[in-house]
Amino acid sequence: MDGLFVIDKPEGMTSHDVVKAIRKRFNTKAGHLGTLDPMATGILAVCVGKATRMGQFIPSSPKVYTGSIRFGFSTNTYDREGVPITDERPLDRSMAEIDHAMQSLTGSVDQVPPPFSAKKIGGVASHKFARKGQHIPMSGARVEVQEFQFIGLEESVMSFRVVCSAGTYVRSLAHDLGAKLGCGAHLWSLRRVVSGELGIEQAVPLDKVTAAALIPMDALLASWSRIEVSGEEENRVVHGNPIPGTAATKFARIFNKNGEFIAVGAAENGWVHPRLVLTSINSG
Prior knowledge:
Elements: E1 3-9, H1 15-26, E2 30-33, E3 41-48, E4 63-71, H2 95-103, E5 107-111, E6 120-121, E7 124-125, H3 126-131, E8 141-154, E9 157-164, H4 170-181, E10 185-195, E11 198-199, E12 204-205, E13 215-216, E14 225-229, H5 231-238, E15 243-244, E16 251-256, E17 261-268, E18 271-277
Parallel strand pairs: 1-12, 3-10, 14-16
Antiparallel strand pairs: 1-3, 1-13, 2-3, 4-9, 4-10, 5-8, 6-7, 8-9, 10-11, 15-18, 16-17, 17-18
């Protein structure tokens, strides 16, 4: 079994919990692309079999999220699962001021991750320090927030839509928005509806996933050029050696004459250089 499952992650499970469930159900190696917090739901891409080696090539941006933010106080986790760290204050701002604060958080920004996150500090996840009450200053990471869109406001809870790059913490957006508006805020709910080329309409609930939901290897990276090889060229590819050729895209999928996806190659100056070899079997 080689390919990718698009799972609609349920609330309350970690991304690793989902991977473990897939491993157990299908008796195969598996790995996820792009962590979702336990509170969040939506798209979690899980590669299985040979596809676990292809994560670096599968597009992870843009990410699109919908969700809600509660105004009134901040929490230590930047979401509803944490404890309050500020006094409660009402949201006393106009719609124009809210929109201005949201737009100030868009563009290319240096975003500081939440203290309770998987962000590594000296090789150790920051949440391990946070759980011990140790405050370790973290530097910002450059992320792209293309859109931070207001959807609606009911009492103290605002619904929103975000389009951003991989690595963006929506919890930090919520926290920073509350700081800008002077009332504090935290993430109340979150759902990932787009991840790279994957949409929520492709996602299958974890408890209903079957082998029929697998996106096979030969259907991955379908927007790339396809190169077919046989004989000596196939032998060169499986040993990691370049072959003459061109492609319309920077990277190309290389198949053998039996239709097996055998390698990812980079097209440069009339040659295709294998960057990831997926098989060591020469069936030419």
